[in-house]
Amino acid sequence: MCGRYASFREDQALADEFAIATVADDVRLLGPSWNVAPTDGVRMVVERADKETGEITRQLRVARWGLVPSWAKDISVGSRMINARVESLEEKSAFARPFAVRRALLPADGYYEWKKADPASGSKRKQPFYLHPADGDVVALAGLYEFWKDPTKADDDPARWVVSATVITRPASEELAHIHDRQPLMLRADAWAAWLDPAVGADGARELLETPGPDIVATPVSTAVNTVANNGPSLVAEVDPQEA
Asked: Residue 67 belongs to a domain with what CATH number?
């Protein structure tokens, strides 16, 4: 699974990288994070109709990490839907509709996974790794998003609508399987346009998920990342696993 990632690139850098036309006001309030956790606000790239012109534009918006289905009775459901397995996207009602019409890219600089301790070592502590592109480029996590109306809020309350998102995962590559058996599905730049295009249906989107992702390297990092309250560049700094 993907349960923690880093997204610390500046908004303007992401706008340039993803050819963003509109950056939502609340995006600028997020700030960089080296320890993005479930239920946090996250930046996502989508193609939506402009409120004023109706034209489809590429936008950088904020979503709550953990998809809340439109039919959910309570927002807490989202904490169990931070990931969507690629093998069953079209079988689960929470993901089938968004997969067809509401796809997103979640910009990241890398993500974290925890490797189980070797029984022979006598230790039970998991070692965290920061997994990131070998070339230092931005990662585009394939995601889905949804709208949920909070039944406890009045119709004229601006906060009545919650936008939430999930990260699609796939079986880990042979190179990374020794750390964890799953990994987020990452799309290369040549697949971004079709993935975001609302006119591309589920069949076309499914083909995009079969394309190879970027080359990823694994860096052992401090167990400080285990605590969601910890944040900062030191979390992605390489350490000696024996001293982590």
From this structure: 3.90.1680.10
